[in-house]
Amino acid sequence: MAGVSFVVEARDGRARAGRLTTPHGEVETPVFMPVGTAGAVKAVLHRDLREIGARILLANTYHLMLRPGDARVAALGGLHAFTGWDGPFLTDSGGYQVFSLAALREVGEEGVRFRSHLDGSAHLLSPERSMEVQENLGADIAMAFDECPPGDAPREAVAGATARTTRWARRSRAAHRRADQSLFGIVQGGVHLDLREESARALVELGFPGYAVGGLSVGETRPDRERVLDQVEALLPADRPRYLMGVGTPEDIVDAVARGVDMFDCVLPTRNARNGQLFTSRGRLSIRNARHADDPRPPDPDCPCPTCRTASRAYLRHLHQANEMTAATLMTVHNLFFYLDMMRAMRQSIRLCRFEEWRWETLRRLADAEQIGS
Amino acid sequence: MAGVSFVVEARDGRARAGRLTTPHGEVETPVFMPVGTAGAVKAVLHRDLREIGARILLANTYHLMLRPGDARVAALGGLHAFTGWDGPFLTDSGGYQVFSLAALREVGEEGVRFRSHLDGSAHLLSPERSMEVQENLGADIAMAFDECPPGDAPREAVAGATARTTRWARRSRAAHRRADQSLFGIVQGGVHLDLREESARALVELGFPGYAVGGLSVGETRPDRERVLDQVEALLPADRPRYLMGVGTPEDIVDAVARGVDMFDCVLPTRNARNGQLFTSRGRLSIRNARHADDPRPPDPDCPCPTCRTASRAYLRHLHQANEMTAATLMTVHNLFFYLDMMRAMRQSIRLCRFEEWRWETLRRLADAEQIGS
User: Fold this and answer.
1) Cβ separation A42–B325 shorter than 8 A
2) Nearest by Cα to A55 from A265, A220, A209, A232
3) What pLDDT, in 10s, does the model give residues B170-185?
4) Would the CB atoms of A318 and B39 count as touching at under 8 Å?
5) pLDDT at residue A370, rounded to an integer
């Protein structure tokens, strides 16, 4: 069984509409991948994800290697059999989490030695170990192990991490074995265009079936991010999927698609839902606000999602205030539908060569809504 | 719109199979009502409840009067419109919770003055106020306001509470106005057969469209409970539904149906699910147990519920250990399916005049399973 393949089927400016074929089905791009950290999108069952149009999930290597353990997942048949999600999975490399969650990190050329944030046990995450974990998990797409410097790191630190990410990408590729899993490279380099160029050129030279842009959405300005995306887009091969990791707001995603990005993941729609923040076509809505207590309208009167079809703001606010778990479920379903539906509309606009029109209309509507409130 | 009506359609011994017709649809009895304390069954969406066969939900007057407030629910169209559950609802009287949850209770002939366990605000719950709250909530079935003495109360205390419950039942009936809502009386009397008789005769004299047995499942022995049910069954009119409040285990329910009970509610299947305890045809299963960590089998290989069709013990254990909300959802769906499916089988066995056979087979299977483990 081969890994993934990718075709760009339509272009409008630099925006692309394509198709990613994986061992577990096809995915139309640009695509948003809901985050299923521990092998489950928080608060939503798989079948509800399918119903609202989720096609590919992201799962976190760092979390799963610690619990329930990658060898256990492998013995149970891999992530698909273990979780029951029969569509494609992508696993991240563990790099981002080991730099943001793990205790007592020691970073060296070999990899990162750390202690689990769960039980303090000692672990090593290296390119070779990340490949072993990701092959055990068995996602359709695995990511090369990368070093993620903090957003405020000085240039020298970013330069060091970028060079190491390239060396680790080489080791990742050498260690990766599974033919039914595709390994993507990750471009680092912070907001430094020369480092981004160096990173992108080195990875393209190594050759991967897909490329991610890491190290963004870590506090950089929007112009900085746009410059990085412009730079990287020009260097990456046009026939390979491009994945912007951990981004972002609806506006961020629209802007990145305009710069040729095909794949996204972000915890924003799911995490915000659990905190009572809803994305709507009329702007964001905080369900905690007392003005919703007597409001019989759905969160978004124009939204056809299962939540807006059945639940009022008053009911959602009540469930949220009463700490009922179904509050998180209903609001996560809505927020993910909002994101997935936006991706559908965006794909269609690209295929109809109306992306720019759709883009400005959407951004203006979102901006107006922010000012007006909903 | 009339309230509920009830027909007994089949009998086998004292067990009855019937049909409860409500303003929001028909319900076959014996029936189990999942508990939706705050207007939502914890962790499960309405449509999943419908899919597994739930037909009528219980909601708690005490909780809803405090949050979001019964006047607010009324302004939003009542419980059905507010929650989106379009099947029948039953609300309890608030009596049980005010005696078990509220702070600084003062019980007098007028009612119970107490402070909210949420914010310390002062409230009165009386027969008249309970009727007002329940009419505001607008369930298909309301319950008369009763005094629930603790399970270990001395006989004199139980006698006083029983007599007061009768006086409060009279006041409840006098205060109750809504024609589209049926008011059931509650028989009290603890484990004292003479008090139970006194209570049942007085309530039947008042005349209600249905009768509940309260004050059981509060620590009494099984023989004591069986004696009370035998006693009460003989005194209640055969053409009215009988509701055993807050009971119980699968075995408890089977035994009560054998004694002519038609309706049940209990938090056991939902609460146990959230704690990782599953009911199966092969006995109870604690998903926390480490032996499930590598087990690819569903919780109950013979169970056709949505959870057992898709999730392994290993995955459920992982989700539970990782504090994923979907663990609660998946396990609640299974436990409620187990209860609701047992009720279906029981109804069928009564209609086929094979209830006793079914009963002993079921009880033996459950007992064997407890010994063997699963």
Assistant:
1) yes
2) A265
3) 999 999 999 999 999 9
4) yes
5) 59
* Lookup result for tokens 């090593």: A124
Specify the pairing of strand B112-115 against strand B122-125. antiparallel
CB contact under 8 A, B319 and A293: no
- Using the 8-state DSSP alphabet, how is residue B123 labeled? E
Sheet architecture: strand order including A103-107: A103-107, A112-115, A122-125
DSSP state of B287: T
State both tokens at B221.
């022995």
Q: How many CA atoms lie within 13 A of A348 on its CB side?
A: 7
pTM of the model: 0.97
Torsion of CA B287, B291, B292, B296, to 10 degrees: -170
**DSSP β-bridge partners for residue A141:** A90, A182
Which pLDDT score, from 0 to 100, does residue A366 have?
A: 86
Predicted local confidence at residue A273, as pLDDT: 98
CA distances to A49, A352, B357, B372 from A45, rounded to whole Å, are 6, 33, 38, 32
Query: Helices (DSSP H) in chain B: which residue ranges?
Result: 46-51, 61-66, 70-75, 78-83, 95-100, 127-137, 155-175, 193-206, 222-235, 250-258, 268-274, 306-310, 313-321, 325-351, 355-372
Mean pLDDT of B11-38: 98
Query: Is the Cβ pair A46, B310 closer than 8 Å?
Result: yes
Contact B246, B96 (CB under 8 A): yes
A146 is catalytic: no
Mean pLDDT of chain B: 95
Nearest-by-Cβ selection for B45 from A39, A317, A329: A329
Residues of A in contact with B77 (CB under 8 A): 296
User: Which residue in chain A is spatially nearest to B317 when comparing CA positions?
Assistant: A68
CB contact under 8 A, B38 and A324: yes
B207: left (phi over 0), alpha (psi -120 to 50) or beta: left
Question: What is the rounded distance in angstroms from the CA atom of residue A293 to the CA atom of residue A296?
Answer: 9
Gap from A326 CA to chain B (nearest CA, Å): 5
pLDDT in tens, B109-125: 999 999 998 999 999 99
**What pLDDT was estimated at residue B370?**
59
B274 to chain A, closest Cα gap in Å: 11
Contact indicator for B181, B135 with CB cutoff of 8 Å: yes
Q: Which strand (E) or helix (H) includes residue A158?
A: helix A155-175
Residues of chain B contacting residue A306, judged by C-beta atoms under 8 Å apart: 47
B296 contacts on A by Cβ (under 8 Å): 76-77, 81
**Residue A326 and residue B40: Cβ atoms within 8 Å?**
yes
* Nearest residue, CB atoms, B72 vs list A40, A294, A326: A294
Between CA B274 and CA A104 the distance in angstroms is 34
Report ipTM for this prediction.
0.96
Alpha-carbon gap: B285 to the closest alpha carbon of chain A (Å): 19
Sort out which chain B residues have CB atoms less than 8 A from A40's CB and list them: 319, 324, 326
Give the pLDDT confidence of B340-370 residue by residue, as tens digits. 999 999 999 999 999 999 999 999 988 876 5
How do beta strands B141-143 and B122-125 pair? unpaired
Cα torsion angle, A72, A73, A78, A82, sign: positive
pLDDT along chain A (374 residues), means of 10: 91 98 98 98 98 98 97 98 98 91 88 92 96 98 95 95 98 98 98 98 98 94 96 97 97 97 98 97 92 97 96 98 98 98 98 98 83 49
**CB proximity under 8 Å: A 291-330 to B:** 293-294, 296, 306, 310-312, 314-315, 317-319, 321-322, 324-326, 328-330
